[in-house]
Design a protein that fits this description.
Oligomer: single chain
Helix content: over 70%
Order of helices and strands: HHH
Radius of gyration: 17 Å
Number of strands: 0
Mean pLDDT: 81
Low-confidence stretches: none
Largest sheet: none
Length: 87
Amino acid sequence: MQTVLALLLSAIVGFLFGLRYRVVAIAFVAPIIALAVAIILRHSHFVLAVVIVFASLSVSQIAYLIGTWLRYQSTTEQFDDRYCSDR
């Protein structure tokens, strides 16, 4: 249950940061995510905790990329609608 919670929270944080902020923000958020997941998993075995921290950071960064892609897709569609209409 703790593993699922850690992965879900890191995915949500990464996605929300991808929709709102630039890539520098993920550099500041990644250590906070790693620390939070390590605190959640402090009673687990060391190797398992390391694997889950790595997985949660990976999930967060993938979610960040998806959020960023969605943000730029909507920007591109607005640009196309505004400036590329048939006249």
